[in-house]
Design a protein that fits this description.
By secondary structure, the chain is mostly helical. Helices cover 75% and strands 0% of the residues. It is globular and about 65 Å long. The mean pLDDT is 89. InterPro entries: ABC_BtuC-like, ABC_transptr_permease_BtuC.
Length: 345
């Protein structure tokens, strides 16, 4: 049995340590996120609630943690992880480091669906359902339009996504134009800025099931994304069914994006910035980029949500803060590493 190069072994060990560090960081950020807010609680209270010891905490603390704080923090972590997975998968799939989770128009479609639902008087589950459905419809249209091209399918998909995004963005503008300016327009505008304030405890389990179900295929296929990131011809020469892999990854990444947007509204930059950080941190191998994206994306969105809840008296929409943080950080990444390539190399 051939021995592995010592340098390669050392590199793998370093990457493993870095991923372990991200896991510890996420655990620390999670605890802090649960404890901070308008009404702060102690880590001891959190432990008591998680242990089910209702007599160890006051009724108000129990209600705060079980009905408000824990559902929000848990879903925030899952949404951050899911958006990062989707963005990273698209960057590898399309060999383009500038791709994000909205490259095929899922977020724009979901925004139109939500705006339309609010316009016709729906709320809560109705808005989420419309957002989810139109997110899927947008990507289905982009994928269908891309089939017109018989040559460069990847470029055709990206261009189709841009067209569909523009189309649904125009639809959102049209809905806002005819919306009632007293109540409906402010509701649409607030939803489009992204927020986790409407999350309920009943949302947690169904959303987690959907996100985990869509994430698992991408996680399992992450080594195949490695091959696709090097080029379609190389992947085919290794016996990879590139069409099937691409279809599965696109469907799962779309499902992730549509689910996240339907729950939280628009949250930008996460799927673009986090995979870049992860490639700088653990290298270009998607077997490590995807796990790192899960951990770093969850931590990032938790930190941003903490800021949204604590910086001012009234909560700041989280989508505003991700843009404020993401844009300058991405510029720094470009300056430092030239926007690390989405392919392995």
């Amino acid at each position: 049995m051939a021995l592995e190069n010592p340098e390669v072994e050392q590199q793998k060990r370093k990457q493993g340590i870095r991923i372990a560090f991200l896991a510890v960081l996420l655990a620390v950020v999670f605890v802090i996120s649960v404890c901070v807010g308008t009404y702060s609680v102690s880590p001891a209270d959190l432990v008591s609630v998680l242990a089910g010891d209702i007599d160890a905490v006051s009724g108000s603390v129990w209600t705060l943690l079980t009905e408000v704080r824990l559902p929000r923090v848990i879903l925030c972590a899952f949404i951050g992880a899911a958006l990062s997975i989707a963005g990273g998968a698209y960057q590898g799939l399309f060999q383009n480091p500038m791709c994000s989770q909205d490259v095929l128009g899922a977020s724009s479609g979901a925004s139109f669906g939500a705006a339309l639902a609010i316009l016709i008087g729906l709320s809560g589950a109705g808005v989420s359902s419309f957002a989810f459905a139109f997110g899927l419809i947008a990507v289905a249209i982009a994928t269908g339009v891309s089939q017109i091209s018989k040559t460069n399918r990847i470029l055709a998909l990206i261009l189709s996504g841009m067209v569909v995004s523009s189309l649904f963005s125009s639809g959102v503008s049209a809905v806002k134009l005819v919306a009632d300016t007293e109540e409906v327009l402010p509701a649409i505008t607030y939803w489009l800025m992204g927020s986790l304030t409407s999350i309920r405890s009943s949302d947690v389990l169904p959303t987690i099931i959907l996100l985990v179900a869509a994430s698992l295929p991408i996680y399992i296929l992450r080594w195949r994304i490695n091959l696709l990131a090097t080029g379609e011809d190389e992947a085919k020469s290794m016996g990879i069914n590139t069409t099937a892999v691409r279809l599965v990854v696109i469907c799962c990444a779309t499902f992730l994006t549509a689910t996240c947007v339907s729950v939280s509204g628009l949250i930008g930059w996460v799927g673009l910035v986090i995979p870049h950080f992860c490639r700088l941190f653990v290298g270009n191998d998607y077997r490590r980029v995807i796990p790192a994206s899960i951990l770093m994306g969850a931590s990032f969105l938790l930190i941003v949500d903490d800021l949204a809840r604590t910086l001012t008296v009234s909560e700041i929409p989280i989508g505003i803060l991700t843009s404020f943080v993401g844009a300058p950080v991405f510029l720094l990444l470009i300056k430092k590493g030239g926007a690390t390539n989405g392919s392995r190399g």
